[in-house]
Amino acid sequence: MSEIPYHTSLLKHTVFWRFQMTINRMPSLVIGDLELSLPIVQGGMGVGISLSGLASAVAEEGGIGVISAAGIGREEKDFYKDLRAADERALRKEIRRARELSNGIIGVNLMMALSDYDTLLKASIEEGIDVAFISAGLPIRLPENFTVEEFRNCKTKLIPKISSARAAAVILKSWKRLFNRVPDGFVVEGPLAGGHLGFTRHELETESQNLEDILEGVINSVKPYENDYGSIPVIAAGGIYTGADIHRMLSLGAAGVKMGTRFVATHECDAHQSFKQAYIDCEKEDIVIIDSPVGLPGRAIGGRFLDQVRAGIKQPLGCIWQCLVTCDVKTAPYCIGKALNNAKMGDFCNGFAFAGANAYRVKEIVSVKELCSTLVKEYENFSQNTAVN
Ligand SMILES: Cc1cc2nc3c(=O)[nH]c(=O)nc-3n(C[C@H](O)[C@H](O)[C@H](O)COP(=O)(O)O)c2cc1C
């Protein structure tokens, strides 16, 4: 029997452990010149669920902490007098506060359906926000108050949230033609997410769509553009709950994941304790699909308020500003901004909580630090087990 020379066996041993280390550890998420040690984006959650408190805590752990701009001005005294000014002031305040609390990466979530979307995007960029996640609409026009030059060279990373490969293709094509640039990445959100969803009720009820297939489609759509414009990371979202889920998404080619539901059940989440408790108390059957006045289906925890809506009982609207472009104020049975804000304050007689399909799995409130270290451990264990088997 020939003996393996010492240096060859040493090399094999080193390669084996290098391999072990790379498969066990969560990789970093790179978005242009930003490098995140934790490839986790905390989902922007309105109204008032993810503000500077949650966002700064996630940023401190090495992920992207995201402030939701939806209805952010509702706590300002002049909200009913001047929505635009109130929203803009509140958003700037939250960004500055998050910056005071953390040196990590901070993002904002801006819904295109917001009537002051352009103002809030401009304000976020002026505040030097690291990343703007753009949702609830196809961002294929130049936002107001921007020149093409400004939009092309803006330092803030611009990342649309989409739910189909077709949407990615449309955005890529238009941005290339209009601005000679592409988005800095995409978030692909599947049907299990909380909040408003980019699917029809029929698609949701028949479970005809799944995140894995859409992710694959989007990854294929960005590939041809990467030769000219460099890497376009694709981040997976919707129903991602454990470290094993993160591992599965990364092994399918996602550069990172975006998680909302799991971050609600943290001490740092900016919602009232009763909002978090609603997650702990809910059962699988309590999580329902609603038709939101915004014109999109959404996933939420059912309860008295939504029962009344279903029974046809109209809530007073009191709409002074049409804060959502797509809201049909004449027929809307309630003001969704007000209802979500009430829930955020713990008033479930007059509001309801958005939640992902996995919200019923939440059993306790933990700190963001504990949650992130659990996710890392789960990822590493899963990675090790799959490598061994
Ligand atoms: C309570 C709640 C509020 C949300 N609000 C918004 C929002 O205002 N804008 C948005 O684009 N997405 C919103 N989302 C979606 C999240 O940003 C994220 O994409 C989603 O939660 C990911 O799915 P998961 O909850 O299964 O992790 C919300 C989700 C939840 C649970």
Q: Could you write a compact summary of the structure shown?
A:
By secondary structure, the chain is an alpha/beta fold.
What does this structure look like?
The chain is α/β, with parallel strands linked by helices and 389 residues long. It is built from 14 helices and 14 strands. The strands form three sheets. The chain has an eight-stranded parallel beta sheet with strand order 3-11-10-8-7-6-5-4. Strands 9, 12, 13 and 14 form a four-stranded antiparallel beta sheet that branches. Strand 7 (157-162), helix 6 and strand 8 (186-189) form a beta-alpha-beta unit. Helix 3 (83-101) packs parallel to helix 4 and helix 6 (165-179) packs parallel to helix 8 (211-229). It is globular. The two termini are 29 Å apart. It binds flavin mononucleotide. Flavin mononucleotide binds at residues 43-46, 49, 68, 70, 109, 111, 135-136, 161, 189, 192-195, 237-240, 258-261, 264, 354-356, 358.
The arrangement of helices and strands along the chain is: HEEEHEHEHEHEHEEHHEHEHHEEHHEH
Averaged pLDDT: 92
Number of strands: 14
Number of helices: 14
How do the strands line up in the largest sheet? 3-11-10-8-7-6-5-4
Low-confidence stretches: 1-21
Task: Output the structural class.
Answer: alpha/beta
Which ligands are bound?
A: flavin mononucleotide
Terminal Cα span: 29 Å
Helix content: 40-55%
